[in-house]
Amino acid sequence: MNQRTLNVAVLTVLTLLLLFPMLVASQGFRDKETKPSPDTIIHNGVILTMEQSPAQVEALAIQGGSILAIGDESDILAMAGRNTRFINLEGRTLLPGFIDSHAHYVQWWSDGGFSTPDEAVDFALSCGWTSYSSMCVDPNFLEELRTLDQQDRLRIRVNAYLQLSWEFYRLGDWYQAYQPGQEFSSKLRIGGVKIFMDYWWMEWVHYFNQTELDTLVQEAHEAGFQIAIHSVVDNATDIVLNSLESVLEGQSNELYRHRIEHLVLLRDDQIQRMSNLGIIASFQLPWCNSDSIPDFTQFYQDYSHIVGRWRDIVQAGMPSIGSTDFTNLFPDSVGSATDAISMAVTKTGYLGLAPPDWMLNQSLSVEQALRLITIDAAYGTFQEDVKGSIKVGKLADLVILSDNPLTVSEDDLADIEVLLTMVGGRIEYTKEGSGFPEPPPRPIQWSEILPPPLIFISFLFLTLFAFFAYFERKGG
Ligand SMILES: [Zn+2]
């Protein structure tokens, strides 16, 4: 080391020693600031809160993954600190992130045409979904979800519904090893349990008789779990309602939030009964649109008076939640939230067939459809206090749409694009060419690319190589 190098080294060390107390002091000064400045401010667009009041605001501030403030543009902009990032909506529409109350993105990713679960997650995010309820979680799939979560690959929030049965097969009480509402992380949570009472519209099969279902429902109810029961056909739903009514013993379902999935055939008396009991109706927004007419012509002729009664359900006032059931391919495979809204409102599918009157009579308003996949969906998982609307203190799960669904014409709903999706204040999807900030780079997950044995072998090989290279040099 020559004198010059030594001088530079000594000077550097001295400078660092001098700077260190100043850095500490400035940090202390920053900590003393009472008002936290937002990480992100989103402004200059239409912000639909999905709250009663205010229903619309001009700007919002985010800090640490949650909504810090909402309000007028000038008030929010005044909160900006030195490190605040701005997202200028330029007239676009911001909504709370969409919640798919019944879907299978990560589980049946290959059915959706994806080559990895990560691709399915990317797809869901690109559709504006920030949360979904995974409705068929068996012990193996729960392990898969937990692994993905530990590897930071669940970039969407997942509520897992643990499966108690599949057709005539019973999975036992494995679910009781978990707690209702148990959170493995901010992305993975136990939602409840799932039971299959029947199968499909054309299959009049019951997987349980009344006594069997009563027993299973009683056990899960006593263990404190929210129960979701797949029931498509009305006579299966009779059995389900008997079981639920019996465990509720006159108490409000508000405490338990038991829910019935699909409800494709539903009679008037059942709508009344569900409303009285406060059972949550969980149905698929895109189902029973005009695309299904060619496949179900005869069925619709026989049952149109009780098929897909989404409007009657919502208007009856029972708690209701909306979903897609994607990637379930039967019958209408729709993962796009905006397409799902469009189909629920217009009843017209991708084929563009004109829907018959009985279908149109069950169309929802855009506002109803939006509630079903935001604030009402959050109620469906006991999470209405943390997400589902834009409110101070709630999670910054947000979606930017190219247009305002409440003001475009119904025919243009399907053309609305998702431009950006944010989960917990972090941008997880940006539409190419939209001009919005890109998602931050994610650290490379070697485990995503290589299976664990390969990582180990590669590591071993490299170590051995380095070792031999070293001795080779020493020897030579
Ligand atoms: Zn399903």
* Gap from first CA to last CA: 27 Å
The CATH superfamily of the largest domain turns out to be: Metal-dependent hydrolases
Q: What does the main sheet amount to?
A: 8 strands, mixed
Strand content: 15-25%
Tell me which CATH architecture of the largest domain applies here: Alpha-Beta Barrel
CATH topology description of the largest domain: TIM Barrel
Query: Which range best describes the helical content: under 10%, 10-25%, 25-40%, 40-55%, 55-70% or over 70%?
Result: 25-40%
Radius of gyration: 26 Å
Q: Which hetero ligands occur in this complex?
A: zinc ion
Q: Can you put this structure into words, describing what you see?
A:
- With 476 residues, the protein is α/β, with parallel strands linked by helices.
- The chain has three domains: 40-91, Urease, subunit C, domain 1; 99-387, TIM Barrel; 446-475.
- Helix content is 35%, strand content 21%.
- It contains 15 helices and 18 strands.
- It has helices spanning 3-32, 73-77, 117-126, 139-150, 210-222, 234-248, 268-277, 293-303, 310-315, 337-346, 357-360, 366-372, 375-379, 446-449, 452-475, and strands at residues 40-48, 56-63, 66-71, 85-88, 93-96, 98-103, 129-137, 157-163, 165-166, 169-170, 188-196, 227-231, 259-262, 280-284, 320-323, 398-401, 418-423, 426-430.
- The strands form three sheets. Strands 1, 2, 3, 4, 5, 16, 17 and 18 form an eight-stranded mixed β-sheet that branches. It has an eight-stranded parallel β-sheet with strand order 6-7-8-11-12-13-14-15.
- Strand 2 (56-63) and strand 3 (66-71) form a beta hairpin.
- Residues 102, 104, 135, 325, 328 line the site of zinc ion (ZN).
